[in-house]
Amino acid sequence: MSVYVLPEGGVHQRVRLPKVLFRRLVNCSLALSTLSPRLNDTDVKVVVIPEQGSHTTDVFGALTNALRKANICFRVLDDPVEAALSSFPLLRVEENKINSRSTTDVGCLNLNALRIDHGMVPSTDKRQVFPVKILPHLLLGNYETASDADLLERNGARYIINVTSNLPNAFEDNPSYHYLRISVDDNSSHNLSQYFPEAIAFIDAAARAGDACLVHCLAGISRSVTVCLAYLMAKNKWSLEDAYDLVLRRNASIAPNFHFMGQLTEYERHLGVRVSGTGVTFK
């Protein structure tokens, strides 16, 4: 399913969801803002272009129902995708504009601006929920968390992964803390997956030492979440969907960008995880 969001006077945006989110859309548990932040504006005009595939009917029905409920104006194009792109070449995503390192099925235009935003969950003050205990030895946090010595001490966090290129390591001069910096910005130009093995080894080192590892970025919702998801997938042989569900249960305020979700989808393939659809029972 290809979705072209066409705001008046603006640039089109093509959106394709990773498989982990297709099921949420069909189950009506995916906010329209997940597809594009522009869908928060009821004045946008949406063109839905169905593609061929066995899953298309369910996704098409769920999407159009959601658009109707939100009173968003949309039209469905009956022509095949290639015919539509031939008539409207500006809608085509050129190969050289997509990160050549990515072979996932989520490579699209302007994905750095998109978030997985769970609008169904009431917003909370993130300062009240961080750090989030993903596992006994794995904590998710933001920069505030990483800069609070008392908070780190109370949670036994002696190992800290700083997933930013510019934020300082607050207690780097203190020998009690161990740091790993992953210098990545929150956009579509950075390959976070290349750091997964190093991050996983660092988190395991914290567990062996009897300590906890805090993974943080600026806000604690995208880069740091991506690292935590990769760890859960690698250590438990979980699918991306199962890992995502666990982190979502621990903290609903997560929003990894679509580019990182694409890298996690590729990582799932690399791990050889079989997506059974049965899910995992979490405590």
From TrEMBL:
Q: Which GO terms describe its biological process?
A: negative regulation of MAPK cascade
> May I have one GO cellular component term?
cytosol
Q: What region holds the Tyrosine-protein phosphatase domain?
A: 130-273
State the source organism's domain of life: Eukaryota
Signal peptide coordinates? none
Q: Does the keyword Hydrolase apply?
A: yes
Keyword check for Hydrolase, yes or no: yes
GO molecular function annotations of the record:
MAP kinase tyrosine phosphatase activity; MAP kinase tyrosine/serine/threonine phosphatase activity; protein tyrosine/threonine phosphatase activity
Report domain Tyrosine specific protein phosphatases positions: 194-254
Keyword terms, alphabetized: Hydrolase, Protein phosphatase
Protein EC: 3.1.3.48
Cross-referenced InterPro entries: Dual-sp_phosphatase_cat-dom, MKP, Prot-tyrosine_phosphatase-like, Tyr_Pase_dom, TYR_PHOSPHATASE_DUAL_dom
The entry's family comment says: Belongs to the protein-tyrosine phosphatase family. Non-receptor class dual specificity subfamily.
Q: What is this protein called?
A: protein-tyrosine-phosphatase
